[in-house]
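Sample entry (128 residues):
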Amino acid sequence: MSKVALDASALLAFLHREKGAERIAQDIRGAVICTVNLTEVLTKLFEKGLTVEKTQRILQSLHLEIINFDAQMATKAAELRLVTRHLGLSLGDRACLAVAEQLGLPVLTTDKQWLKIENLSIDVICVR
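Predicted structure, serialized as tokens:
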């Protein structure tokens, strides 16, 4: 098991057994997710009717490492806006990239747009 950072789209694809879930399953246990991306995931799960208790059980079963989004990461995410605006990356997308860069981890996503980012110092693994 290699350590990776998860984008919200990757965790949701895994949880919903969507295309790419098998690839995500290879690295899900012990993967890193930042609080910004976790908020995105929880929001989607709550919208589907899951309770706080159910979502907590799911997350605990995955043994994810939850990383607090700090000022350094915020600065990097803001800088990334300049080079990703044309690709339409969201704040959550840029937060995931900033965390992965700071921790020196590859990132798993379902968003092919990430592969078009130039001069990125981390590996992006698109599972779709």
